[in-house]
Specification:
The protein is α/β, with parallel strands linked by helices. It has a single domain, classed as TIM Barrel (Alpha-Beta Barrel), CATH 3.20.20.330. The protein is built from 13 helices and eight strands. Helix 11 links the parallel strand 6 and strand 7.
Length: 366
Amino acid sequence: MKINLTSAAMQTQISPPKSAKPYTRGASLPLLLRERILILDGAMGTMIQQKKFSEADYRGLQHSQRFANHPGDLKGNNELLVLTQPAAIRQIHDEYLAAGADIIETNTFGATSIAQEDYKMPELAREMNVTAAQLARAACDQYSTPDKPRFVAGAIGPTPKTASISPDVNDPGARNVHFDALRKAYREQAEALFEGGSDLFLVETIFDTLNAKAALFALDEFFEESGERLPVMISGTVTDASGRILSGQTVEAFWNSLRHIKPLTFGLNCALGAALMRPYIAELVRVCDVAISCYPNAGLPNPMSDTGFDETPEVTSSLIDEFARDHLVNLVGGCCGTTPEHIRAIAQAMTKRKPRPFYTELKEET
């Protein structure tokens, strides 16, 4: 039987640059992604929100006076909790691992010096990332078995600023951040996540491709200079029914802008929820020669819901199961509004599904 490739992209061979060592962590992930659909964890923010931490809790005043006199409110700085409420963050990791997650994300979505400027804490970014990775590493080490290894994904978020879009409607050329500042912040984050024990990097919730390029450039610099090479996962977010990310690209253009990175996985998360995300995942399946990831919100936002979203574990898992049934995905999980119960239901549904074939499997057979 001969399989016809849908594009020239499908013929790309995935290999690390010759100047770098082979993957030194997460080396088994490419094989695992071919063998079964892997499970990513759910929403850290949703779980933190349910704990209803007070300002005093965010400052860690029950244990220390370190942040007692810090100016400004700290409530809402979820990344600070790895320092002030580490037991709570570890518990969340444990709950997702117990639910069946193969990969858990560090609590570092906003742990860059740029994002932490909002809380007047940019100097704590490195410490946050190291500590967050150590917490996730300890959880994965506890839950890993020879038959089911668990992996730490160093989570790299987009920052609250955008390098491509003006914050001033009257000045299209204005910018509140530039490439070099992003690159520097992301490099610091990458080094710290690696130091803390991450197995791979996840550049996620990308709404501005230029921000993502700065993160990926920083990772490449780190790989070249350190001699280490970890797998990189990339996930964007389609912000509305136009099928584009916020900086204007279609998902096909988004892929073509970043495919030179040769990521382990490429996909979408957050935003529209699974039902509205399907056509854009299908578009990526048509053009991508790497594993496809999908971890949607639990539907559309609903402030009246306990989680902020309407979908139950049964609804979200059934929608994702349809993706798997149609051979669209290799890695699935949950974003905003998803809980360990959502991940448990998703993991159970995936046990009867096969992963989407990708790159080296798409070859001529006789």
